[in-house]
Structures are given as C-alpha cells and as structure tokens.
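Protocol step 4 of 6.
Sequence for Nitric oxide synthase (Haliea salexigens) entered exactly as in the expression construct, tag removed. Do not edit the line below.
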Amino acid sequence: MLRRLHSLPGLFAALFLVVLATSGAILSLQPALERSAATVPARGEVSVAEVAQKASLAYSGIEQIERLPSGAVLVYFTQDGNSGADLINPVTGDLVTTYAPSPFFSWITDLHRAFLWDDRGRAAAGVGALIMVFMCVSGLFLLASRAGGWGKLFAPIRGSGTVNINPRLHTELARAAALGLLLSAMTGVWMSALRFELLTGVDEREADFPQAVAGTAPAPIGSLHALQQVDLMDLHQLIFPFPDNPSDVYSLRTHQGSGYIDQATGEWLSYADYGRAATVQTLIMELHTGEAYWWLGLILGLGALTVPVLAITGALIWWQRRRAMPRMQGNTSRHEADTIVLVGSETNTTWGFAKSLAEGMQVAGCRVHVAPMNRLADRYPKARRLLILTSTYGDGDAPASANQFIHKLEKMPAAFAPPWAILGFGDRQFGNFCAFADLVSEALLQRMWPQILPTEHVDRQSASSFERWGVALGTALEMPLSLRYTPVPRTTKPLILYAREDYGTLVNAHTCVLRFKSAAPRESLPAFAAGDLVGILPPGNNAPRFYSLASKSKDGVLEICVRRQEHGLCSTYLYNLSLGECVDGFIEKNSRFKPPKGKCPILLIGAGTGIGPLMGFIRDNTAHRMMHLYWGGRLPASDFLYEEELHSCLADKRLSRLHVAFSRGVQPAYVQDKLREDAVLIRTLINANAQILVCGGRQMGNDVATAMDTLLAPLSLDVATLKKSGRYLEDTY
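Step 5 output, structure tokens:
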C-alpha cells in the first residue's frame, strides 16, 4: 500500500515537480554567483561605519547600503538625476561592478514560485511542494523497509533488480537526495502557507520613529558610535538621511533588529529587537533560497537535479511492474474455487509463477482462484487446498501485496483449515532469504492447518526449482501436474566466439574459458563490469542461463568460464561451440556482487568456474589494494584456471597472495581447508574491515560459510552478521 501511495502522486504531479526542482536547481546558482563576485571580510574586520564612510566619499548622492545574504555589498545612489546601484569592495570601498537584477533569474524565479502565473500558480507550486514532502517521507519509509530498519538506511543496497530498468538507480539517487529534497519541500510548503495566510507569520518588530533629534550639524558618518558597534556581517540595510535635512535620521536594519540613529550624535534614538521567532522565520526562508548559505544552496540544487531522473525511472519502473502483472484467464470466483492461490509480490514477478501454477492446476481439472495475499477472505466455501507463492521484501519483510496477510489470518474462523503449501521466492544474497515465506509457514503451522508439502524456496526466480516443486506438489495431491515457467523474452545481441581455453580433461571435468566479441559489424559490446551476468539463450529455449563475467566491456571482450554439466542444456551448448560461431545473449547488472570502493582488504573465495568474476576483480585492482584469493580446483595439471595470469598479477601486486587447494593433488585439500590453515591471517583481515566475496557452487559456499563461522567465533562474529553489514557477499549456484 505504501508503495502505491508513493508512486501515484509522483505520477500525477511528475511534470510540476520536475519544473519546480529544475527551476530551483537553477536558482541555487544565483547565491553562489553573487558570492563569487563579492569580497567578504572576516567577522570583526570591518564595521558598518567604515564601509559607510568609504562609500559616502565615493558616491556623493548615496542613498542606501545593502548587504545581500550572499555577502555582496551594494551601494544605491542618485547622480545627475539618474539612479543606480554598484557592487563594491567593502574593505577598500572600490567599485567592483555595476549591479542590476538578472532578467533571466527573475524569469526563473517567477517560474519557480508561480509557474509564470498569478496566485493560482503560487497555489499550484505550494501543492507541488506538499506532494514532494509526501514523496520524500514515503520514500524514506520504503528505503528503511528495504534496508531492514532505519539504522541501515545508508547501508549497501543488496539484491538484484527484477525489471528491465533496475530500481537501484532510482533507489540510490533517492537515498542520496531525499533529505535535501525534504528540506527544500518543507520550507517551500511553509512559505506557501504564509503567502496564503494558512499560517500566521511573525512580523519583524519595528522601532518607533523618533520624535526628537539633535538637529545640529551632521557628524562624519565614520565617527558615529552606533554604526561603529555594528559589524558588517550583521548588516542588512542602512538608509541615509535626506541631504541637508538635520532632522532626518539614519535607518539601520541588522539581522538582529532595526532602529534609528541620530546623524549628529551617532546614538540610537530607538531600537527594536526582532525576537527569536522572527529570526527562525528568516532562517527558514534563507534555507529554502540558499541566499545566506550558498554552499547549502548548491547542495540542495544538486539534489533537485535528481528529480527529473527520479521521475523518469519511477515512471518506467511503475509501467514495467504493471506490464509484469499477468492477466489471469478463467480466474474462478473464490466462492466456487476448489484451489486458492494467493500471491505475495513486491515487483509483480511472482505473479508470472502464479499464472503458470494456475494454468497447470486448471489443466489438472481444478477450479482456481488467484488473488493477492492481502485479499485473504474469511470464507472459501469449496476450497480444498491453499497454495501460497510469496517473495520477501528487504530484510525479511512482507512484500507490498502481502503486508496485511498475517493480520487477516489471525481473524480467520477456526473452522476453516484447508491443506496448504508455500513456495518462497528470494535472493540468497539477503541474510533473511525467503524469511517472509517461512514466517507465513510458521503462522499456518500454529493454526494447526494440515501441510501438503514442506515449505520450499526458489532462488533468483529459478524456473527449474519451480518446476521441481510442481512435480512434488502433483505427487502429494495425486494429480498430474506439470508446471512450465517461461520468463519474458529478453532483447539479445549476437556474440561471436573468437577465443577459448580448455581445462579439466584429465579429471573429466570439462571446463573452458570462452571469449566473445560483438558479432554485429561496427557495434561495440553492451556496457558491463566484472561480476555482472550474461544471459545466454540456448537454441530452442527461452529460459536464459546466467554466467558471471570475468571481464568488463572496456576490455572489448566478453569472457566467461563454463563447466560442462551432465545433461546441462546450455553448458553443453557453450562447451561445444567452435571459433566463429555465435550465441545470443544479454547483460544483467549484478551490482550486489562487487568489491566496495575504498582501501579495505578484499578476501576472494571461489572454486572451479567461480574464479571467473574474481579474476575480473583482480585484473581491475590497479590501485594495488590488499587482495587475497583462495581458490579450489581438482588437479593442478588439468584445471588450474588462469594460472599464468594469476602469477602475473602476483608479480605486479594486483594480487597480494594466492592460496590454492586441489582435491586430487599430491596433498588433497579443499578451499575451506586452506581457510582453516590461515585462520590467524583471516581474522587479521576481518579486523581490518575486509570484504569477503564468495563465488562457486552452492555446496562449496555452504562449506566455506561453515568454516568461516568457526574462524570468526573468537571475534564474536559469524557469517550472518557479516552478511547483514554487507561485508560477506555470495554468488553461488
């Protein structure tokens, strides 16, 4: 629900928000430009009396001195019947440049405040600012939910995107700009509310105009005691007395208050302090405009520039989620259905699996009702089974379409107890993998509802895992059930194989390093980095197989490591490729599996073809940060992948140390054995804030995690803790 409340106002007001933000970003330049042209003395260096003395000598018809919030000092004067304004150096009194308001900035200001309209435009701008406040607040709540709590709001974002436009760009920009946008929007709402008298503003207290003055000859302005006591940094405006009028006075406004000064005696005739409330009111205005804080204005301006990108990416993500929602053909009403399928999804991808399940059950003769988990009804008169497919959002939370399910479940009639099965969808990169599915399973077990199958998990939308679950479900229900999930076809590019290296023939573990280039003439490879994924579509199959990339696009080569699996459709296809043959592939970003920026040590752990992305990270380590590689193979003479290049990286310091283990060598060992041998070194690296990246088979990943838990125990740490802090990343398969 919160996601809908966040997205719909943004879609409705996107254009207005873009105009407000873009014009605000442009206006943020004005204080900085004024500041760059101004000479700003230090506090205590120049008094108002000194500036006024120098200015009055330079301008015979001086009328007023004004210090702008940016620090620029202006002199307003009349000479030869013509009025003018100059920007001066307050220290020397010298002319800097003639001053005139910028027509361009005036136009942008009108656009920002009122959309070049009248008060109706101002009202629209105020509503736009209010919508921006709501967008920022709701967005921050969504970010906190995804991160696993407010304390992790700025922790690394893990997990992969599930739509064509990766939401990571939207999320990262929003996280960077949210607080600045919220400050600008809240101050804008406040100013708009004052404008339309929805809030009562605080009037600055005005000093009483003096009834009596000395009336004697004016003293030199530089000698006036009251002006000598006021620092230039506190000046807002000094208005000079009318020439040749001894009864007139100086009018002085500072940031603290205002009053009148006798031109003969130099003493205060009257003074009024603005008060704290008025000072706060002025501060709010200055925070919005950035006039007094040019550096803050630039920061807020940069934040405002994210709004067009956020609007575009947000709209695209919304549209793609809508497209991802399948249309359920023949969806039986809940009153007539014998099979209830409830779906929990954040990005709508789980609905594709639900559609496949519903179609399979319909073929088996069932009447199926499919609905979001939040639409759990209190009665299903003819239901014989309940099937739940749900993802997990963030760090173990319910997805958008299931966040009310547990609450509704607690209110279900005790007599209703259908047999049930749950299939969870998630990403093993998260510490609480499929945690919400497990939570729902526990809630149903507590209600003593009969379970059809133990709860199972699907990692990263694995079609094969889903199909295996369907076979088990059909067996348990004693019905012929065949599930086929076909992902939405992806746009691919032809890749031509131009080089390969073969390994593993001596141990019957046929492995190869394949290097591809773009098959299209004069067309470069799509953008990618080491650790990203390439999806390969084997002939006659729309379900892609993903392989981690060992290269980056700037290398001009797409490089992967492939081990031929028994009965493996894609691995066999790739292994049997000859030079010059082409494949169809596409790039999928995998930013969740990357070494962090900075200088912290890197601990790379892998086995077999899992060395691919790790090799890419080593190649890119031109800054020579500390990087250790623990890698396991079978036989050094047969499948020591990248042996020569690894030794070359050791020589040029891109790799600090290489630790290898071979299960069929002279001294058989596995990579986890090497970790245990180097326990002291591992703990030293962990204490130095080392980042751990593990890549390879799932069993290897489990064995490494078990070994690491033992190694980390003396430090009062474990793998789960490191995962939550983003210091332990896995890419296992």
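Step 6, annotate. The first strand starts at residue 62 and ends at 67.
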